[in-house]
Design a protein that fits this description.
mainly alpha
């Protein structure tokens, strides 16, 4: 089994770690963006979150749904649904000894697709922009899974 030093010398793993850091930072930004929209639009999902804006019936008016808040929240949920599989499959893929340039292409396409998907979701851009961002990222994860299953895993 490889020790930590060997892992840090693995260029594909280090590329994976770099692009994973970017995409996880983007995902963390989305939770901050959701909170920002909730605070600036005074739109909350839980009664206790409204306490600083009033009590009783006065606070209830802040318990509502807002299209902009929901749009940011859905974009964040979509990140969770797509980035988690990328993390698992990408880690296994990066440790399977793929060609460096092919691996970096996978990682760059995925990160670019997720950033593009978020931009298309938040602006919003007309379809099929968001769908293209989703499908490219999903296709990258499927491609890594296929290459991993084809070359390294025992079925």
């Amino acid at each position: 089994m490889a020790d930590f030093t060997q892992l840090m010398e693995n260029e594909v793993f280090m590329a994976f770690a770099s692009y994973t850091t970017i995409v996880l930072s983007k995902m963390m930004f989305m939770s901050t963006a959701t909170a920002f929209y909730r605070m600036t639009r005074k739109v909350f999902a839980n009664p206790e979150d409204c306490a600083s804006f009033g009590k009783g019936e006065n606070a209830k008016k802040y318990l509502r749904v807002d299209d902009r808040v929901e749009r940011v929240r859905r974009a964040h949920l979509n990140d969770l649904e797509n980035i988690v599989p990328f993390l698992g499959i990408g880690l296994l893929y990066s440790l399977s000894g793929p060609d460096l340039s092919t691996a970096i292409l996978h990682f760059r396409l995925f990160v670019g697709a997720r950033i593009y998907h978020t931009i298309a979701y938040l602006l919003p851009l007309p379809q099929p922009n968001r769908a293209v961002g989703f499908l490219v990222g999903y296709g990258v994860t499927l491609s890594m899974a296929y290459r991993l299953l084809k070359s390294r895993l025992y079925l």
